[in-house]
Amino acid sequence: xxxxxxxxxxxxxxxxxxxxxxxxxxxxxxxxxxxxxxxxxxxxxxxxxxxxxxxxxxxxxxxxxxxxxxxxxxxxxxxxxxxxxxxxxxxxxxxxxxxxxxxx
Length: 104
Known about the structure:
Shape: elongated
Number of helices: 2
Largest sheet: none
Structural class: mainly alpha
Helix content: 40-55%
């Protein structure tokens, strides 16, 4: 005899939706990270070997924490490539317009 199908509780549906949103947003954020232009010279090759420590969890993470961790992981993967290309001193000229900055 077949058992009747019970509908999911609100709490369970909310948890599943939260996990799906977290996974989707983590994927979008990970795709948003792009490597620096290959034309930019590597000024500090020692920076390419830098590694940020892996995150460890003392308690099970929530969906929001997992999404935030995925975004940080994407940045962490690209950070050494950017740091290797940053000059030791800033350039003498600030080119305008800079997006979001008003010239006054």
